[in-house]
Amino acid sequence: MKEIYINEIARTLSVKPWQVENCEQLLADGCTVPFISRYRKERTGGLSDIEVSQVKHWADVYSEMEKRKETILATIGEQGKLTDELKKAIDSCIVSSELEDLYLPYRPKRKTRATVAKAKGLEPLAEAIFSGKCNDPVQEAGKFVRGEVKDTDEALQGARDIIAERLSESAPIRENLRGIYRSRRVVSKLTKAGENAPEAAKYRSYFKFSQPLATIPSHNLLAILRARDEGYLSVEIDADGEKCGNKIYYDYCQQQGYPRRESGLQLREAVDDAWKRLLDPSISGEVLREAKQRADEESVRVFGENLRQLLLDAPVGPRRVMAIDPGFRTGCKLVCLDEQGNLMYHTVIYPHPPAAKKIEAITTVSDLVEKYSIEVIAIGNGTAGRETEDFIKKVGLPKEVKIFSVSEDGASVYSASEVGREEFPTEDVTVRGAVSIGRRLMDPLSELVKIDPKSLGIGQYQHDVDQGLLKETLDGVVENCVNAVGVNLNTASPWLLQYVSGIGPALSRSIVQYRAAKGAFGSRDELLSVPRLGEKAFQQCAGFLRIPGASNPLDNSAVHPESYHIVRKMAGDLGVGPEQLVGNEALCKQIDPKKYVEGDFGLPTVNDIIKELIKPGRDPREQAREFAFADDIRDIEDLVVGMELPGIVTNLTAFGAFVDIGIHENGLIHASQMGVKGLAVPSKVLKLHQQIMVQVVSVDLERNRIGLKLIK
After folding, report:
1. CATH of 636-710, one of 2.60.120.260, 2.60.40.1180, 2.40.50.140, 3.60.150.10
2. What CATH number should be reported for the domain whose range is 321-442?
3. What is the percent of the chain where pLDDT is above 90?
4. SS3 for 402?
5. What is the pLDDT of residue 133?
6. CA dist list (Å): 135 to 155, 185, 251, 254
7. What are the pLDDT digits (tens) for 463-504?
8. Rounded CA gap, 496 and 530, in Å?
9. Of residues 596, 571, 569, 573, the one with CA closest to residue 584
10. How many CB atoms lie within 10 A of CB 315?
11. CA distance 503 to 478
């Protein structure tokens, strides 16, 4: 990668150029983000997985820019117009808009007013006026009245068209105008179509809206742009035409000198036309796209952070689970799962009206809890969720059986997906959905990797943002979370294994097929026997795979096989075997890390090894905790301003946090109601699925909106 790109990435991320250069080289060598951030800290100066992901993103961006430069240079070269100065300017570009400005005068054009005028031979007249050398433009225009040019007015109009296009393609003029537009306000107004569309009511806050483009929150901008695309709003930047025209003319005069009066009049006309017809639509569109890109990045960042928190949500672990997908008319779908999430039994109970077979349902639940040694019960939080939870609590189950409310977001998507059909080809969607709810309680990460993140109800305008950026970010979050937790090689599904560093979909299938044919893996080294899994893939994945009960206890830790020799040396120096060192905090504290620094294994790696030896294979996630909503709150009509209630955070956005308080509508804690001076960043105050206490500050029955304030 070129030095200019390395320096710019370093500046953007506030890191050293050598960190970026080494990181980019590792990526180019085929190393993954989790592997680099975990096992190559010496090379990157300890860049986090997020920072490595950002280096990867910008490296890809500049790689595409370099390809674009090659195309541009080749095109200009074919025209015979590539000067050394222009080539140097193009080579040094790091901003896409600047690169395109340089290319604009040379870009092949379709038919324009200027190209038509040039075809009529009016370019010399335009040049004479533009250069300021023309004392009498009308008299000069008379020399061009011939052929397709009928009179001097047509000749002057053609010359002005050429000048207008030339001005609109000037890189300095375009950049100066961008500066003006970026400092202006974005304005939205209701359109005629919006006046006649009831659907437009959801955008009522933007029917007469104005805010500086530099400070408009991402969710506001994305909302008005969506409404514009739907035809309900008109959106523009309130640039001052007279100010912009004066700026264009002043910039011209600075470069060319002040023209004579008659030429100046022609130039002013060309300037006004250039701004109104060419520059205003172009620059306005560019600056709005820039703002949308920033809004996309912010929205995707929030989505990614929400997904990270959701994937790392607290599991209950390998327990026997009864999972219930609640319903009224169609009944409650009930499944029993073993410790590995395998389906043991399923049925339907009808504890609610209209069927109301309550006694039968109580008997069924009690018998199944005893028969399958159920330890926890997972109840979906959708329709009839609260009522089903109340029913289960009255069944009279053993005290050790814990009850959890589980988000249903994504369960229905999984139940109808190819993954769901592959796992349970003979079961219908209702059974698959209930299984997903149960497995999600056992291990959210393992289950949620099977579901499109956009179906999990945690995004903000996810269908409006750059889909490529969204996919890149969310895939990176899933990969980083899976590898941060680690994966049991002998029980993981192919859908989980494919996110392990260096594996991917094809190798994950090969591993599962090998496991089915040969039995459980006894060591990490056995991975090299899996078809198509070579040394490079082994290097990338081995440290993130766990083998509980392996003969070598390091195979159930995050210590990479390439570092096993260091552990053996540590153990030997202490007069014990490696197996005695693993998990022995007292022994590990006797180790002097500096003694084991060698070659590529620096102090950061050695310290990581010691930490892992103390708590091998430790799951970084918390344990799931039970939660109960307020018993007397069932509907929005039950709410009273000032009431204090328990709730669970269901979504974090740039403007606030949505909270489930046990009724059909989520409440909103606006950023200003988070107990922090000024506007808080919600994701820095709260976490997804965090259990909190809130106070009701407003209830809008007409629009089903609930305003909340964070208490604790």
Report:
1. 2.40.50.140
2. 3.30.420.140
3. 84
4. strand
5. 77
6. 16, 41, 21, 19
7. 899 999 999 999 999 999 999 999 999 999 999 999 999 999
8. 17
9. 571
10. 22
11. 14
